[in-house]
Design goal:
Elements lengths: L6 E7 L2 H11 L3 E6 L2 E6 L2 E7 L14 E6 L3 H10 L3 E8 L4 E7 L5 E7 L3
Parallel strand pairs: 1-4, 5-8
Antiparallel strand pairs: 2-3, 3-4, 6-7, 7-8
Length: 122
């Protein structure tokens, strides 16, 4: 069977400049490439393509399906401290879950929600 090597999340954002700043300055992503209307960002194995869609309904208006990613990380506690220090809106505080994960969730300026999780030691 073919192997999936990596994944890229494609997000419609109302304000490309503001969204790009959020990912770069608050979540520690790097800008890989930029063209008119698009920003290509990454942090480790996570890749994002932000597309400028000023007339799209912001995800914050669609609460039912506003999750876009569950990102598996090392040192969830350290990442949590980093995001809090940068003033990121926290959706769920850092907590150990009964399914064996230490996780927290954030909200982006467009209302997308990202969950970060680290497997707990067995």
């Amino acid at each position: 069977m073919s192997e999936i090597l990596t994944s890229t999340f494609v997000l419609a954002v109302n304000d490309l400049a503001a969204s790009k700043r959020f990912y770069l300055e608050k979540l520690g992503f790097a800008e890989d490439f930029s063209v008119d209307g698009w920003a290509f960002l990454s942090r480790g194995a996570c890749k994002l393509r932000l597309g400028h869609c000023p007339d799209a309904m912001p995800m914050s208006k669609n609460q039912d399906h506003s999750w876009f990613a569950y990102l598996h990380v090392r040192d969830a506690s350290g990442l949590y401290e980093e995001t809090v220090k940068h003033g990121v809106e926290i959706w769920h505080k850092l907590a150990d879950k009964p399914w064996g994960m230490r996780e927290f969730a954030v909200v982006t300026p467009d209302g997308h929600r990202i969950v970060f999780g680290e497997r707990l030691p067995v």
